[in-house]
Amino acid sequence: MKTQVSIPHHDYSSRVREAVEQRLAGLLEHFDRIVSLRALCERQSEAHRVELVANVGRHATLVVDVRADEFPAALDAALHKMGRVLDRHRERLIGRRRDHRRR
User: Fold this and answer.
1) Fewer CB within 10 A of the terminal residue: the chain, N end or C end?
2) Distance in angstroms (rounded) separating the CA atoms of residues 24 and 64
3) 3-state DSSP call for residue 77?
């Protein structure tokens, strides 16, 4: 899995980039066929924005966008939300396979 962490305008330190990359690796527990993950972390006025984009193969792209007052809260919410989206995507794939076998 390829990971890319983008921090425009150098809003956060390099330690934040490393921490985000480690936390992104934890998303493999939800869906192990992730091709690439991209995180965009930026500060917009007083709010912090975290956008996660997961490419899961077969032309499927899953996107999560979260804003919060503090960066750790935004990152936690984005990772939690992406975990749910990946779980839902995995369940859909499993359901399609079962339906295909029944025919």
Assistant:
1) C
2) 13
3) helix
How many structural domains does the chain have?
1
What is the distance of C-alpha 41 from the center of its chain? Answer: 12
Please name the residue that has the structure tokens 């990946």: 86
| Tens digits of residue pLDDT in 60-102 | 899 999 999 999 999 999 999 999 999 999 998 888 766 555 5
Decide: 18 and 75 in contact? Cβ < 8 Å.
no
Residues 25, 60: contact at Cβ < 8 Å? Answer: no
Enclosing domain of residue 49 = 2-102
**Is residue 69 within 8 Å of residue 50, measured between CB atoms?**
no
Which residues on neighbouring strands pair with residue 5, listed in sequence order? 39
CATH number for the domain that contains residue 28: 3.30.160.100
